[in-house]
Design brief:
The protein has helices at about 1-15, 20-35, 40-50, 55-80, 85-90, 95-105, 145-155, 170-180, 215-220, 255-270, 285-300, and strands spanning about 90-95, 110-115, 135-140, 160-165, 185-190, 200-205, 205-210, 225-235, 240-245. It has a seven-stranded mixed sheet. Strands 6-7 form a two-stranded antiparallel sheet. The protein folds into two domains: about 1-85, no CATH class; about 90-275, no CATH class. With about 300 residues, the chain is α/β, with parallel strands linked by helices. α2 (about 20-35) packs across α4.
Length: about 300
């Protein structure tokens, strides 16, 4: 019942022109920043960590620009329920997909790495620019709220792609590798690992950061080629997406993953307001984590 309520409400909103939706976004922005203070402490802590040398006024400007963009993408995602391919093509410029087509012709699985940046849901519009007949898939973590999860799966089907649950990724991708048809899998890989076992560390945006290794671990099994989606905001509701090959970093255990994170860093620092600053990414340092694991080991003994 709740799913149909969401679908009906959002479906009605999606029929409004984007200009009207942006007016609603402006209202939501005012509520979030002046009344709700949505995750303000987390956002400010993250910005303080990453930009300690910037003035309080500069960080506040990024904070407000972030909240404005966050409100915009909420309504942009809703608009996916009722937006034409023509309007998306006017709003999204895509470059570099010829490299993906070439990989498909050579028989390589394509792993597309992106992050919670720009409008990561609209970024799937890249699939529409592929010339080769490629099966497009994406890895996702189910949300705890079933109606919201089902609605997001419906929205992501807008681009004729198949969603694969994270826990089923290895089995599904190995099965696809056995098929003759080439495939592309998208990983949103800038979030925290959700396993206490598979945690690896690097420096990301100047912070001790855990990172996810799943894409590269699976990629080694299927001889995948890794590409990064570099996103630029070119105006309100307008984006430039460029597919670029990930360059491995020599000497690293997961060279393509670290290469991706370096590219993600450059993207974030170029337009920091477009990244999702409201997640608590740096709640523990590498040293603190090691102490925690040592303590757990001693307890178990």
């Amino acid at each position: 019942m709740l799913y149909y309520l969401y679908a009906g409400l959002f479906g009605t909103l999606a029929r409004l022109p984007l200009s009207w939706l942006y007016a609603l976004s402006d209202g939501l922005y005012w509520i979030i920043t002046h009344l709700w203070h949505y995750r303000r402490r987390v956002v400010r802590d993250n910005l303080q960590r990453v930009f300690p040398d910037r003035s309080p006024e500069e960080r506040l400007a990024i904070e407000h620009a972030f909240y404005h963009h966050l409100c915009d993408i909420i309504f942009e995602i809703i608009k996916l329920l009722h937006i034409s391919d023509e309007e998306l093509k006017r709003r999204i410029e895509v470059r570099g997909t010829e490299q993906l087509d070439e990989c498909a012709r050579q028989g390589h699985p394509i792993f597309l790495l992106t992050g919670h940046y720009g409008n990561w849901e609209w970024a799937q519009h890249i699939y529409s620019f592929l010339k080769e007949d490629i099966t497009c898939t994406q890895i996702y973590r189910p949300t705890r709220d079933w109606p919201t999860n089902e609605l997001m799966l419906h929205l992501r089907g807008r681009f004729n792609s198949t969603c694969i649950r994270q826990k089923q990724a290895v089995r599904t991708i190995l099965r696809m590798k056995k098929d003759v048809k080439p495939f592309l899998t998208t990983f949103v890989a800038d979030q925290h690992p959700n396993s206490e076992i598979m945690k690896h560390w690097t420096t990301f945006l100047g912070q001790d950061s855990m990172y996810i290794t799943g894409a590269e671990e699976i990629g080694r099994k299927v001889d995948a080629q890794y590409f990064y989606v570099d996103i630029r905001g070119t105006g309100r509701g307008r984006y430039l997406l460029e597919c670029r090959e990930v360059q491995p970093v020599e000497g690293e255990e997961f060279p393509y993953t670290i290469g991706y994170l370096h590219m993600m860093e450059d993207t974030i620092l170029r337009q920091p307001e477009l990244w999702l600053w409201s997640h608590r990414r740096w709640y523990i340092s590498h040293e603190e984590y090691n102490k925690k694991m040592e303590k757990l080991k001693s307890i178990r003994k």
